[in-house]
Amino acid sequence: MNVIGREIGDALDELRAEIERRLRVEMERELGVEAADQQAISSLRWSENAVTVLLHQDVPTHALPHVFAIALQHVRQRLDRYPDVRRPDGEQPVEAPLLRQALRELVLAPEAEMQIESLALDLEWEVEQRHAALKEMLREPPEAWQEPGDRGHAFITLQYTRFALHHPTEMWEGLRKSFNEKLPAASESGEHLVDVIRANGWGTPGACLQSLLGARDELKLQDVALIQDRRVGALL
Fold first, then answer.
1. Which of 6, 61, 104, 230 is in the most buried spot, having the most CB atoms within 10 Å?
2. pLDDT digit string (tens) for 28-60?
3. Rounded to an integer, what distance in angstroms lies between the CA atom of residue 38 and that of residue 185?
4. Sheet holding 84-86, edge to edge
5. pTM (2 decimals)?
6. Which of 60, 79, 98 is at the close of a domain?
7. In this structure, are 8 and 95 located in the same domain?
Protein backbone atom coordinates (compact mmCIF):
# COMPACT_ATOMS: atom_id res chain seq x y z
CA MET A 1 0.00 0.00 0.00
CA ASN A 2 1.21 3.47 -0.87
CA VAL A 3 0.32 6.26 1.57
CA ILE A 4 1.30 9.93 1.02
CA GLY A 5 3.87 8.79 -1.52
CA ARG A 6 5.45 6.12 0.66
CA GLU A 7 5.21 2.34 0.60
CA ILE A 8 4.04 0.95 3.94
CA GLY A 9 3.47 -2.72 3.14
CA ASP A 10 0.22 -4.68 3.03
CA ALA A 11 -0.69 -5.05 6.72
CA LEU A 12 -3.52 -2.51 6.41
CA ASP A 13 -4.92 -3.58 3.05
CA GLU A 14 -7.90 -5.42 4.54
CA LEU A 15 -8.68 -2.73 7.11
CA ARG A 16 -8.55 0.06 4.55
CA ALA A 17 -10.75 -1.84 2.11
CA GLU A 18 -13.34 -2.50 4.81
CA ILE A 19 -13.46 1.14 5.91
CA GLU A 20 -13.75 2.29 2.28
CA ARG A 21 -16.60 -0.17 1.70
CA ARG A 22 -18.49 0.86 4.82
CA LEU A 23 -18.10 4.57 4.08
CA ARG A 24 -19.56 4.13 0.60
CA VAL A 25 -22.46 1.94 1.73
CA GLU A 26 -23.34 3.54 5.06
CA MET A 27 -22.47 7.21 4.54
CA GLU A 28 -22.06 7.63 0.76
CA ARG A 29 -18.58 9.05 1.22
CA GLU A 30 -15.21 8.24 -0.31
CA LEU A 31 -12.01 7.79 1.70
CA GLY A 32 -9.01 9.98 0.88
CA VAL A 33 -5.52 10.31 2.32
CA GLU A 34 -3.33 13.42 2.18
CA ALA A 35 -0.06 14.64 3.65
CA ALA A 36 -0.43 17.70 5.85
CA ASP A 37 1.67 20.21 7.74
CA GLN A 38 -0.24 20.26 11.02
CA GLN A 39 0.30 19.97 14.75
CA ALA A 40 -1.35 16.56 15.07
CA ILE A 41 0.29 13.49 13.61
CA SER A 42 -3.08 12.62 12.09
CA SER A 43 -6.55 14.10 11.83
CA LEU A 44 -9.80 13.56 9.94
CA ARG A 45 -11.55 16.02 7.65
CA TRP A 46 -15.21 15.19 7.11
CA SER A 47 -17.06 16.71 4.17
CA GLU A 48 -20.34 16.02 2.43
CA ASN A 49 -18.90 13.44 0.03
CA ALA A 50 -15.61 12.35 1.56
CA VAL A 51 -13.57 11.59 4.62
CA THR A 52 -9.93 12.60 4.29
CA VAL A 53 -7.24 11.22 6.56
CA LEU A 54 -4.57 13.89 7.03
CA LEU A 55 -1.17 12.46 7.97
CA HIS A 56 1.66 14.68 9.18
CA GLN A 57 4.25 14.80 6.44
CA ASP A 58 7.13 14.36 8.90
CA VAL A 59 5.97 11.04 10.37
CA PRO A 60 8.75 8.53 9.61
CA THR A 61 7.83 5.80 7.16
CA HIS A 62 8.19 2.98 9.69
CA ALA A 63 5.65 4.73 11.95
CA LEU A 64 3.08 5.45 9.23
CA PRO A 65 1.26 2.08 9.36
CA HIS A 66 0.32 2.53 13.00
CA VAL A 67 -0.56 6.22 12.59
CA PHE A 68 -2.75 5.45 9.58
CA ALA A 69 -4.36 2.45 11.27
CA ILE A 70 -5.41 4.53 14.27
CA ALA A 71 -6.90 7.17 11.97
CA LEU A 72 -8.89 4.45 10.19
CA GLN A 73 -10.13 3.20 13.54
CA HIS A 74 -11.41 6.66 14.39
CA VAL A 75 -13.42 6.56 11.16
CA ARG A 76 -14.72 3.13 12.21
CA GLN A 77 -15.69 4.53 15.62
CA ARG A 78 -17.99 7.04 13.96
CA LEU A 79 -19.45 4.35 11.72
CA ASP A 80 -20.09 2.20 14.80
CA ARG A 81 -21.67 5.14 16.64
CA TYR A 82 -19.09 5.44 19.37
CA PRO A 83 -19.48 8.65 21.40
CA ASP A 84 -17.64 11.89 20.70
CA VAL A 85 -16.69 15.05 22.59
CA ARG A 86 -18.35 18.16 21.21
CA ARG A 87 -18.13 21.92 21.63
CA PRO A 88 -20.96 23.57 23.59
CA ASP A 89 -22.65 26.65 22.17
CA GLY A 90 -21.45 30.06 23.25
CA GLU A 91 -18.10 31.63 23.93
CA GLN A 92 -15.39 29.19 24.91
CA PRO A 93 -12.12 29.67 26.81
CA VAL A 94 -8.93 29.41 24.81
CA GLU A 95 -8.04 26.10 26.50
CA ALA A 96 -11.31 24.42 25.51
CA PRO A 97 -10.21 22.70 22.25
CA LEU A 98 -7.13 21.23 23.96
CA LEU A 99 -9.23 19.93 26.85
CA ARG A 100 -11.78 18.35 24.52
CA GLN A 101 -9.05 16.66 22.52
CA ALA A 102 -7.33 15.33 25.66
CA LEU A 103 -10.65 14.00 26.97
CA ARG A 104 -11.46 12.36 23.64
CA GLU A 105 -8.03 10.70 23.36
CA LEU A 106 -8.16 9.40 26.93
CA VAL A 107 -10.96 6.99 25.99
CA LEU A 108 -11.19 6.65 22.22
CA ALA A 109 -7.46 6.23 21.55
CA PRO A 110 -7.14 3.05 23.64
CA GLU A 111 -10.32 1.65 22.06
CA ALA A 112 -8.72 2.19 18.65
CA GLU A 113 -5.47 0.57 19.84
CA MET A 114 -7.40 -2.45 21.08
CA GLN A 115 -8.87 -3.02 17.62
CA ILE A 116 -5.48 -3.20 15.86
CA GLU A 117 -3.50 -5.00 18.55
CA SER A 118 -3.35 -8.21 16.53
CA LEU A 119 -1.56 -6.39 13.68
CA ALA A 120 1.49 -5.80 15.92
CA LEU A 121 2.32 -2.48 14.26
CA ASP A 122 5.35 -0.43 15.28
CA LEU A 123 4.29 2.34 17.67
CA GLU A 124 7.67 3.01 19.26
CA TRP A 125 8.11 6.38 17.55
CA GLU A 126 4.73 7.64 18.75
CA VAL A 127 5.37 6.47 22.30
CA GLU A 128 8.72 8.27 22.31
CA GLN A 129 7.12 11.46 20.97
CA ARG A 130 4.44 11.45 23.66
CA HIS A 131 7.01 10.66 26.36
CA ALA A 132 9.28 13.52 25.34
CA ALA A 133 6.36 15.97 25.14
CA LEU A 134 5.11 15.16 28.65
CA LYS A 135 8.63 15.21 30.06
CA GLU A 136 9.04 18.73 28.68
CA MET A 137 5.70 19.81 30.20
CA LEU A 138 6.85 18.61 33.60
CA ARG A 139 10.17 20.44 33.45
CA GLU A 140 8.76 23.74 34.78
CA PRO A 141 4.99 23.30 35.18
CA PRO A 142 2.85 26.38 35.90
CA GLU A 143 1.74 26.76 39.52
CA ALA A 144 -1.89 26.85 38.39
CA TRP A 145 -1.65 23.19 37.39
CA GLN A 146 -1.61 22.40 41.10
CA GLU A 147 -4.99 24.04 41.72
CA PRO A 148 -8.06 21.80 41.41
CA GLY A 149 -10.68 23.64 39.38
CA ASP A 150 -8.11 25.37 37.18
CA ARG A 151 -8.31 24.36 33.51
CA GLY A 152 -4.59 23.71 33.44
CA HIS A 153 -5.03 21.31 36.34
CA ALA A 154 -7.76 19.50 34.39
CA PHE A 155 -5.52 19.24 31.33
CA ILE A 156 -2.50 17.85 33.17
CA THR A 157 -4.75 15.46 35.12
CA LEU A 158 -6.01 14.07 31.81
CA GLN A 159 -2.39 13.61 30.74
CA TYR A 160 -1.52 11.82 33.99
CA THR A 161 -4.47 9.49 33.56
CA ARG A 162 -3.73 8.61 29.96
CA PHE A 163 -0.09 7.86 30.68
CA ALA A 164 -0.88 5.92 33.86
CA LEU A 165 -3.28 3.71 31.92
CA HIS A 166 -1.50 3.31 28.60
CA HIS A 167 2.20 4.29 28.70
CA PRO A 168 4.79 1.49 28.91
CA THR A 169 5.38 0.75 32.60
CA GLU A 170 9.14 1.21 32.49
CA MET A 171 8.76 4.62 30.81
CA TRP A 172 5.89 5.79 32.99
CA GLU A 173 7.73 5.25 36.27
CA GLY A 174 10.09 8.20 35.79
CA LEU A 175 7.27 10.48 34.66
CA ARG A 176 5.14 9.42 37.62
CA LYS A 177 7.94 10.39 40.02
CA SER A 178 8.18 13.81 38.36
CA PHE A 179 4.42 14.25 38.76
CA ASN A 180 4.58 13.29 42.44
CA GLU A 181 7.45 15.72 43.09
CA LYS A 182 6.25 18.71 41.08
CA LEU A 183 2.47 18.28 40.82
CA PRO A 184 1.27 16.20 43.79
CA ALA A 185 -2.28 17.56 43.59
CA ALA A 186 -2.48 16.65 39.90
CA SER A 187 -1.12 13.19 40.72
CA GLU A 188 -3.86 12.71 43.28
CA SER A 189 -6.53 13.90 40.85
CA GLY A 190 -5.07 11.63 38.18
CA GLU A 191 -5.27 8.57 40.43
CA HIS A 192 -8.94 9.30 41.10
CA LEU A 193 -9.55 9.61 37.37
CA VAL A 194 -7.72 6.35 36.67
CA ASP A 195 -10.24 4.62 38.94
CA VAL A 196 -13.12 6.25 37.07
CA ILE A 197 -11.86 5.06 33.69
CA ARG A 198 -11.03 1.56 34.91
CA ALA A 199 -14.50 1.21 36.40
CA ASN A 200 -16.10 1.75 32.98
CA GLY A 201 -13.42 0.83 30.43
CA TRP A 202 -13.70 1.40 26.68
CA GLY A 203 -14.72 -1.97 25.26
CA THR A 204 -18.11 -0.91 23.86
CA PRO A 205 -19.83 2.33 22.79
CA GLY A 206 -21.70 2.35 26.10
CA ALA A 207 -18.51 1.85 28.12
CA CYS A 208 -16.78 4.67 26.24
CA LEU A 209 -19.78 6.91 26.86
CA GLN A 210 -19.70 6.26 30.61
CA SER A 211 -15.93 6.79 30.76
CA LEU A 212 -16.16 10.09 28.90
CA LEU A 213 -19.01 11.30 31.09
CA GLY A 214 -17.24 10.17 34.25
CA ALA A 215 -13.96 11.87 33.33
CA ARG A 216 -15.68 15.08 32.25
CA ASP A 217 -17.78 15.29 35.39
CA GLU A 218 -14.87 14.38 37.69
CA LEU A 219 -12.93 17.35 36.30
CA LYS A 220 -16.00 19.64 36.11
CA LEU A 221 -15.59 20.30 32.40
CA GLN A 222 -19.29 20.43 31.54
CA ASP A 223 -18.94 24.02 30.30
CA VAL A 224 -16.33 23.12 27.68
CA ALA A 225 -17.29 19.56 26.67
CA LEU A 226 -20.57 17.95 25.68
CA ILE A 227 -20.57 14.19 25.20
CA GLN A 228 -22.46 13.04 22.12
CA ASP A 229 -24.15 9.65 22.29
CA ARG A 230 -24.24 8.85 18.57
CA ARG A 231 -26.48 5.83 19.16
CA VAL A 232 -29.43 8.12 19.94
CA GLY A 233 -28.17 11.52 18.78
CA ALA A 234 -28.19 13.00 22.28
CA LEU A 235 -25.80 15.60 23.67
CA LEU A 236 -25.13 15.00 27.36
1. 104
2. 999 999 999 998 999 999 999 999 999 999 999
3. 33
4. 84-86, 226-229, 234-235
5. 0.96
6. 79
7. no
